[in-house]
Amino acid sequence: MDARLVLVAAPILLAASWAVFHIGRAAVGQLQLMLKRARA
């Protein structure tokens, strides 16, 4: 694999994984809140 490809792809993949992690956490929190309200 070409080193330049890794240098270009690494920050993009890092940013994408960071965004997915944080959006996923927020989504799970919203889902739990929704389920809690539905049961009450």
List keywords for this structure.
single chain, 40 residues, mainly alpha, 1 helix, 92% helix, 0% strand
Structure explained in plain terms:
- By secondary structure, this protein is mainly α.
- It has one domain.
- It is 92% helix and 0% strand.
- It contains one helix and no strands.
- The mean pLDDT is 95.
Structural topology:
Layout: H1 3-39
The helix/strand order is H
Total count of domains: 1
Provide the helix percentage: over 70%
Q: What characteristic shape results from the CA principal axes?
A: rod-shaped
Which class do the helix and strand fractions yield? mainly alpha
Largest sheet properties: none
- The N- and C-terminal alpha carbons lie at a distance of 55 Å
Strand content: under 5%
Q: What's the count of strands?
A: 0
Q: List low-pLDDT spans.
A: none
Task: Enumerate how many helices there are, as a single number.
Answer: 1
As a whole number of angstroms, the C-alpha radius of gyration is: 17 Å
* Average residue pLDDT: 95
Outline:
With 40 residues, this protein is mainly α. 92% of the residues lie in helices and 0% in strands. It has one domain.
